[in-house]
Specification:
The chain contains 26 helices and 21 strands. It starts with 6 loop residues before the first helix and ends with a strand.
Length: 732
């Protein structure tokens, strides 16, 4: 290091002092000093002389602070984050770390080291690497927390990154890290990741909502004060200790409401929520929350359909709160959240705020979820798409609560069936499940359960798992177990069918050619050999019929070989299928692929110059604009199918069709003036125009063909300059 610290070095020292102070709160001086020496040695060895190297060092420090300040993790996790770079660089071994700092630090670093091996400069949500990443994360929950903290810091810093890098981070955040944060109760971090993803991929919509929130801030704050004042006055008389405040919802959640409800910003009534936080003794938490509920519903009319009681039965990620919606001043619906200080800490910082690391860990709902996740990911019979579907269901589940006849509580995702419940209790119970008794009434195994149901399972020794069970169960545990049981059963049936076919072939003195048999299986449209034998075992295929088809195929092959010798070269014609999809050199897909077949997505009609990404669909690669209305849904649900894409060259050589929405005053010749401008614009070709006029205003769509966004921007500027035109916007 130089004698005069640089700006980055100064930040490093400030960050380290804060972390050093935190470590000293629970660790003995000798252990902290040892860590200090190892970090100093690591920094001196790496000699971070350029900005990029210093950023990597400071990234670790900022990540460590997020794990402390925003997640609530303890000293072993911070130690692991600070030693991460030294262990990856093999300056220190895991055995040495274990000896110096204990098992917990070593376990976390082992998980982080596994994940570092998967890093190949590609996104974290690609194919089998992604599955191995999830399995590594499932080994110790603190590894997951660290990765979320690191992703949050990367997203905060991404405003200075290249567009392709921001897209990678946004897809990872939408698809993996925001759902993980949601599942672990890190709601504040989840909201920030979603808002930043939106900001980096669709700045126009992000800025629109941010501007609207800013414009309505004063009136919103005035309304919150009007709502709170009488409540505050009444609560003060109860002697309860509390805080009460209003909180505006995230930009991402507001955009979701606009899309789902198909309304304008001005029509959203729940832009904010009122929160009452009580300082209550542990044994009076629920009673005081219900007391506040009583006070507020005495003053304002409640909506009983929107009561959410997570006090009696908390969410599986630890969230506890009482949510009510009441009719406030001016006949506006207002959401009120009632919770204690302890509940608020878990709601803000997640279950990690109260996670127990010392000694033997207590069995918890989070442990159960991780075990279920591990089982699902280790299911070798499931394909990648099935595993990812199961994983996403487990992340964003809405919960219901059902009971056994003895009163034991089980939490299941919304849409769970009697069969899901049976597998949740035990695999053997699920495999033998015939029907259920729900609230004293007999129901089939497909019956959908509701919160509060009391469920008893009827079984039979003759019951075996069926393939169609996979079409209606929703829990990953049930899916995984059913697949395993079907595989075991199929294995038995395949052995029987193979033996039967082989015996019949010998009886008819037929010597089996495996290549011909594989050809026949393919010709019969079977995806796997196992499926073929399963159908024989189930008597869907008659063995003698199969043998007859095999002999026909063998005879045709023989005749074909003889005929081929008689055909002259002059009679041979090469048939080439003309591709439906045109390949172009204007695009670079993924890292450096050009000339790849693709289609332009009709939902957003990208043109040369737009910021774009590729998406692997069932119809091949489709190119979307980064701000496509479907982009966020594709990122969050199918992130593993997203590819980087960019235009090559500077201007583009093809023509693209776009539609402009024009609104203006219905003046004489205004349409003629617009058409005149378009006709004179070099490289722009008019395709169609449709204009409607009503009450002195006209609005219409103009379809044109042009080569790139520069030409488009120039055309829009000229059209906006026409007298009487109010707005010109590009339609998706």
């Amino acid at each position: 290091m130089t004698d005069t610290p640089s700006l980055d070095q100064r930040e490093f020292l400030q960050l380290y002092r804060r972390l050093y102070s935190f470590l000293r709160q629970a660790w003995e001086r000798e252990k902290v000093s040892r860590l200090k020496e190892m970090i100093r040695g690591s920094v001196q060895t790496e000699q971070p002389e350029n900005d990029e190297a210093w950023y990597d060092v400071i990234l670790d420090m900022r990540t460590a602070l997020i794990t402390v300040d925003e997640i609530g993790l303890k000293q072993p996790t911070v130690c692991a984050v600070l030693l991460y770079r030294a262990v990856i660089g093999e300056l220190h071994s895991l055995a040495e770390i274990k000896q110096l700092f204990g098992d917990e630090v070593e376990v976390i670093l082992r998980g982080l080291k596994k994940i570092s091996r998967l890093s190949d400069k590609r996104t974290a949500v690609e194919s089998e690497n992604y599955m191995r990443l999830l399995l590594s994360m499932a080994e110790d929950i603190r590894v997951v927390f660290i990765l979320i903290a690191r992703q949050l810091q990367l997203m905060r810093d991404a405003k200075a990154a290249a567009c392709s890098r921001r897209l990678d981070l946004a897809v990872e955040s939408s698809y993996l890290y925001a759902p993980l944060a949601h599942r672990l109760g890190l709601y504040t971090i989840k909201s920030e990741l979603e808002d930043l993803s939106l900001k980096y991929t669709d700045r126009e919509r992000y800025d629109y909502i941010a501007q609207k929130l800013n414009e309505t801030k004063r009136s919103r704050e005035k309304y919150i004060r009007e709502f709170i004042a009488p409540v505050d006055e009444r609560l003060a008389k109860t002697g309860l200790k509390y805080d009460i405040k209003g909180r505006t919802k995230s930009i991402h959640s507001i955009l979701n409401k606009l899309k789902k409800q198909k309304i304008e910003f001005e029509n959203i009534y729940d832009l904010f929520a009122i929160r009452v936080i009580l300082d209550a003794p542990a044994d009076q938490e629920k009673a005081q929350c219900w007391q506040v509920y009583s006070v507020i519903t005495d003053m304002y009319q409640p909506n009983p359909k929107r009561l959410k009681d997570w006090l009696s039965i908390p969410k599986s990620n630890g969230y506890e709160s009482l949510h009510i919606t009441v009719m406030g001043p001016g006949s506006r619906w207002v959401e009120v959240q009632i919770r204690t200080r302890r509940m608020d800490e878990i709601a803000e910082r997640g279950l990690a705020a109260h996670w127990k690391y010392k000694g033997v860990r207590e069995e918890s709902t989070l442990d159960n979820w991780l075990n279920s996740l591990r089982e699902s990911l280790e299911d070798k019979e499931a394909n990648l798409s099935q595993k990812l579907t199961d994983f996403k269901l487990d992340l964003y589940e809405e919960e219901i609560f059902v009971f056994t006849p003895k009163g034991d509580l089980f939490k299941l995702p919304k849409g769970a069936t009697v069969l899901d419940f049976a597998f949740a209790i035990h695999s053997k119970l699920g495999a033998a499940c015939m029907s259920g008794i729900v609230n004293g009434r007999n129901v089939p195994i497909k019956h959908l359960l509701k919160s509060g149901d009391q469920v008893e399972i009827n079984t039979s020794v003759h019951q075996t798992p069926k393939q169609d069970w996979l079409s209606f169960v929703v829990t990953s545990r049930a899916r995984t177990k059913i697949r395993q049981l079907l595989k075991e059963e199929a294995g038995k049936q395949v052995d029987i069918a193979k033996e039967t076919l082989s015996r019949r072939m010998k009886n008819r003195k037929i010597e089996v050619d495996e290549a011909h048999l594989m050809q026949l299986i393919k010709k019969l449209k079977y995806k796997t050999v196992t499926d073929f034998y399963v159908d024989i075992a189930a008597e869907k295929l008659d063995v003698n019929w199969v043998i007859d088809r095999y002999l026909e195929l063998e005879n045709r092959e023989s005749e074909g070989r003889d005929a081929a010798q008689l055909i002259s070269a002059g009679q041979f014609t090469l048939k080439s299928a003309s591709p439906e999809i045109r390949s172009s050199e204007e695009l670079v897909i993924d890292q450096n692929l050009t000339g790849v077949d693709y289609k332009l997505a009709k939902c957003c009609n990208p043109i040369f110059g737009d910021e774009i990404f590729g998406f692997v669909s069932s119809q091949g690669i489709k190119i979307h604009r980064l701000n496509c209305p479907n982009a966020h849904d594709l990122f969050s649900r199918f992130g593993y199918r997203v590819l980087k894409a960019r235009w090559s060259g500077t201007t583009g050589s093809s023509s693209y069709t776009i539609v402009l929405r024009v609104i203006g005053n219905d003046q004489i010749n205004i349409v003629a003036n617009l058409m005149s401008i378009i006709s004179k614009e070099e490289g722009v070709q008019m395709r169609s125009i449709s204009i409607d006029s009503n009450d002195g205003l006209f609005q219409g769509n103009i379809s044109v063909m042009l080569a790139n966004t520069s030409m488009l921007e120039q055309l829009i500027r000229k059209l906006k300059a026409v007298k009487g035109v109010k707005s010109v916007t590009r339609l998706n």
